[in-house]
Design brief:
Residues 202-223 have a biased composition (Low complexity). By secondary structure, the chain is of the alpha+beta class. It has helices at 2-20, 29-48, 56-75, 79-162; strands spanning 169-180, 184-191, 199-206, 210-221. The chain folds into 2 domains: 1-163, no CATH class; 169-221, no CATH class. A two-stranded antiparallel ribbon has the order 1-4. It has a two-stranded antiparallel ribbon with strand order 2-3. Helix 2 runs antiparallel to helix 3 and helix 3 (56-75) runs antiparallel to helix 4.
């Protein structure tokens, strides 16, 4: 829009300078009509250089038609009609430029929003890819650890199968216990001749009995 304004201002300035270069520098109604037509021509030309979308093409065509009518009115010395048609052409051209610039800004905003959304989606996809990579690395590490543990277990099993099997060791323990019985007493009564009538009691010890007990314990220890 700024570029169009600069171009339009330059064209208007040129048109005004041409319009002022009349004999005696007089500014009559015909001069104003010529200036209005020159200004309208600059705006119509500027509007014709912008994008043609939406209502812009119709407004461009109407502005160009009004400019042609204004030029014909000037040629026919219809000063009032020329001024009116030139102003109408200028208004139509201004409207076309405004709509085109608005559409351009809207498209730029949409493109910027699309670019931001694409960047966000790319960042989210990148984060998901990094998370998936980390999970894959963790899974690979667990798989490697499990494989290493399996190899170690397999090696231990092979070593156990290759080792000679020793016969179990048996230990026999024998324990003998002897128990002496409590000695018993025996009383012997001897009778004396009846003349004396005296009884003598004599105790004779009885040999004590001995009990022998043997216990055998068998202990087997695997090698």
């Amino acid at each position: 829009m700024h570029r169009y304004k600069l171009m339009l201002n330059a064209t208007l300035a040129s048109a005004l300078m041409l319009g002022a270069a009349t004999p005696g520098m007089a500014r009559g109604k015909m001069d104003r009509a010529r200036e209005a037509v020159a200004a309208a021509r600059a705006k119509v030309e500027a509007a014709a250089k912008i994008g043609a979308t939406g209502e812009v093409p119709r407004l461009q065509a109407e502005a160009a038609a009004a400019l042609r009518t204004a030029e014909e009115d000037v040629a026919s010395s219809r000063k009032d009609e020329a001024i009116a048609e030139a102003n109408r052409a200028s208004q139509l051209a201004d409207t076309a430029i405004g709509i085109a610039e608005r559409n351009r800004n809207t498209a730029a905003n949409v493109n910027a929003a699309v670019a931001v959304d694409a960047q966000q989606q790319a960042a989210a996809a990148n984060a998901q890819a990094q998370a998936a990579t980390a999970q894959a690395d963790d899974a690979n590490a667990r798989a490697a650890a499990a494989e290493q543990a399996a190899r170690a277990a397999k090696a231990e099993a092979a070593a156990a199968r290759a080792a000679p099997v020793a016969a179990p060791t048996t230990v026999v323990t024998t324990e003998t216990t002897k128990t002496a019985a409590v000695p018993a007493t025996r009383t012997v009564v001897k009778a004396k001749p009846r003349v004396v009538k005296k009884t003598v009691r004599r105790t004779t010890p009885v040999p004590a009995a001995t009990t022998e007990k043997t216990t055998t314990t068998v202990t087997t220890t695997p090698n």
